[in-house]
UniProtKB/TrEMBL annotation:
Domain ABC transporter stretches: 4-246
NCBIfam families recorded: sufC
Entries under SUPFAM superfamilies matching the protein: P-loop containing nucleoside triphosphate hydrolases (SSF52540)
Entry protein name: FeS assembly ATPase SufC
């Protein structure tokens, strides 16, 4: 099946287990959202799937279109079609946005083949215009000196250029004002379709007003504890996470 499938995943940092038996499947063509309180393990999940070396997967599996990616290095996972937009995008001094993106695209080409410069820049400018990014960003170092909103737009630009099979957006709304949120959300929505599956990680309903999910998952203490339609996010916005925690704590009647 064409999906990103997470099977009974357990992840620890050092000796502390953060993800404790999480199972989730994101089919192509769908947008899923994970919501949950601070410390529930949402960002740990994204980094573990991406292959961050500080996060140890002790059991379970992650399958991309039926193929396990756990034995792959992060760059191999990316070439297989996985994309991770970070909550706090890193700066890469000395590497221009244009060179970074062109190198990333060329790494996917057959040996000895490269993308034509004219085609590359035509596509790049088209995607930049959608995100209201000025041409000068092509020559600036990746994220260096960028505002929070500029960094998030740059992440979505990378996603648009790389055209992944599956995208994980880790708190893309973090640090955005309402105008930047609308632009970034429009950039994500422009890429929705049958050839991509998206997992959106967020604390707040406001992002989901613009990127409307097909399914909402609630994560507490390293597990998915509830699933539902988009209206579940509205319920969380109204009641907070305590009502779910309280429900989990209730004893089961005989």
């Amino acid at each position: 099946m064409s999906s990103l499938k997470i099977q009974d995943l357990h992840v620890r940092i050092g000796e502390k287990e953060i993800i404790r038996g999480l199972t989730l499947e994101i089919p192509k063509g769908e947008v899923h959202a994970i919501m949950g309180p601070n410390g529930s393990g949402k960002s740990t999940l994204s980094k573990a799937i991406g292959g961050h070396p500080d996060y140890t997967i002790t059991s379970g599996d992650v399958l991309l279109d039926g193929v396990s990616i756990l034995g792959m290095e992060p760059d191999e996972r990316a070439r297989q079609g996985l994309f991770l937009a970070f909550q706090y995008p890193m700066e890469i001094p000395g590497v221009s946005n244009a060179n970074f993106l062109r190198a990333a695209l060329n790494s996917r080409q057959s040996e000895g083949e490269e993308i034509e410069a004219v085609d590359f820049y035509e596509h790049l400018y088209e995607e930049m215009d959608k995100l209201e990014m000025r041409r000068e960003f092509t020559s600036r170092a990746v994220n260096e000196g960028f505002s929070g909103g500029e960094k998030k737009r740059n992440e979505i630009l990378q996603m648009a250029m790389l055209k992944p099979k599956y995208a994980i957006l880790d708190e893309t709304d973090s640090g955005l004002d309402i105008d930047a949120l609308k632009i970034v959300s429009a950039g994500v929505n422009a890429q929705r379709g049958p050839n991509i599956g998206c997992l959106v990680i967020t604390h707040y309903q406001r992002l989901l007003d613009y990127i409307v999910p097909d399914v909402v998952h609630v994560m507490v203490d390293g597990r998915i504890v509830r699933n539902g339609p988009k209206e579940l996010a509205l319920e969380l916005e109204e009641k907070g996470y305590d009502f779910i925690k309280d429900a989990l704590a209730e004893p089961v009647s005989a």
